[in-house]
Amino acid sequence: MMEFWDNTQDHKDDILNFIHGQKQHYFEGTTHYWIGLNDNIPYAFILSDILKSEQDLPDIYREYLSPSGHTISLDFAIGNRDFLGKGLGSKTLCAFMDFYQNHIDPLADTFCIDPDENNPRAKHVYEKAGFEKVGKYSPTEGAFVGKVSSLMIKKLKVAS
Predict the structure, then answer these.
(1) Are 123 and 150 within 8 A, CB to CB?
(2) Are 82 and 62 within 8 A, CB to CB?
(3) Average pLDDT for residues 16-43, to the nearest whole number?
(4) At what angle do helices 88-99 and 120-128 cross, to 10 degrees?
(5) Which one of 22, 38, 68, 126 is at 20 to 30 Å from 135 when CA atoms are compared?
(6) For residue range 121-131, what is the model confidence (pLDDT) as tens digits?
(7) What is the pLDDT of residue 3?
(8) What mean pLDDT is predicted for residues 46-54?
(9) What is the mean pLDDT of the chain?
């Protein structure tokens, strides 16, 4: 997980600020952190954030912002080795997106995720969860400068 994750102190501090209900400063300061549990054992870590057109986003992201609802950026990892290779990744992502739309934001209709181009395992899991690769980009700031990421999108229907 550490190979493809932002392990900077700023990110760690942001997680602690979130946990303690303090002001966040990382990214836009609006990231939410989620823990996936299986029989009360933590196994997955998910980050979510609403993307807005007024943010400083890579051009490729702007092409896929929801025209009528909300676009939610996700980061995802199974961090507990005991749960790797058990088929939980795509199931967890699908369940999380349904949960998010049904209980957090009913206008969330576009989800995006951006695995490292050199992480075929993640891309495979995201494809199984219904994400489609729409292109590649290189971050210009943050922990992943100099890396190439795949942008993957999944559209959901908004409940009427």
Answers:
(1) yes
(2) no
(3) 76
(4) 50
(5) 68
(6) 999 999 999 99
(7) 52
(8) 91
(9) 85
Spatial CA neighbour of 79 closest among 113, 118, 34, 124? 34
Give whole-number Cα distances, 141 to 9, 51, 58, 78, 88, in Å. 15, 17, 10, 25, 31
Which tokens go with 20? Answer: 């303690």
d(CA 82, CA 28): 33
Global confidence as pTM: 0.84
In the chain, the amino acid numbered 25 is H
Counting every residue, how long is the chain? 160
DSSP-derived secondary structure letter, 159: P
> What would the 3-class secondary structure string for 86-138 be?
CCHHHHHHHHHHHHHHHHHCCCEEEEEECCECCCHHHHHHHHHCCCEEEEEEC
Phi, then psi, of 22 in degrees rounded to 5: -100, 165
- Tell me the HSE value of 28 on the side-chain side, using a 13 A CA sphere: 15
